[in-house]
Amino acid sequence: QVQLVESGGGLVQAGGSLRLSCAASRSILSSNVMGWYRQAPGKQRELVATIDRGGSTNYSDSVKDRFTISRDNAKNTLYLQMSSLKPEDTAVYYCNAIAWGKLNIGWGQGTQVTVSS
After folding, report:
1. CA quadruple 67, 57, 91, 28: dihedral positive or negative?
2. For residue 65, which of 32, 47, 56, 82 sits 20 to 30 Å off, Cα-Cα?
């Protein structure tokens, strides 16, 4: 069973930056499309960024041009660099494979990001 551990969240003022990390217990990053998700209070979990096996990335409109997803396959670690943060970015952030259900990969505890205005 793959375990995912997210870290790097915190409290930041609007306009600030944070870098999130997601460590996987074994190598899954290089062979799967990976994504960062977020869930704000009272809202459904949403996918905000993906990176495929070739390194191509995609972003939701809400974070495009502000967030950057990357990975280090040797370290089994996925990253999310967030800049120009807004209060509406406040959420718990999770990482997982896009095909998490098919691959039977559970969810980590997430990391809380709080952006103050």
Report:
1. negative
2. 32
111 and 93 Cβ atoms separated by less than 8 Å: yes
Chain position carrying tokens 């559970």: 106
CB atoms within 10 A of CB 10: 13
Structure tokens at 62: 């809400």
Cα distance between residue 100 and residue 111, in whole Å: 18
Residue 111 bridge partners (DSSP): 93
Q: What is the pLDDT along the chain (117 residues), one digit of tens a residue?
A: 889 999 999 999 999 999 999 999 878 888 899 999 999 999 999 999 999 999 999 999 999 999 999 999 999 999 999 999 999 999 999 999 999 999 899 999 999 999 999
CB 95 within 8 A of CB 108: yes
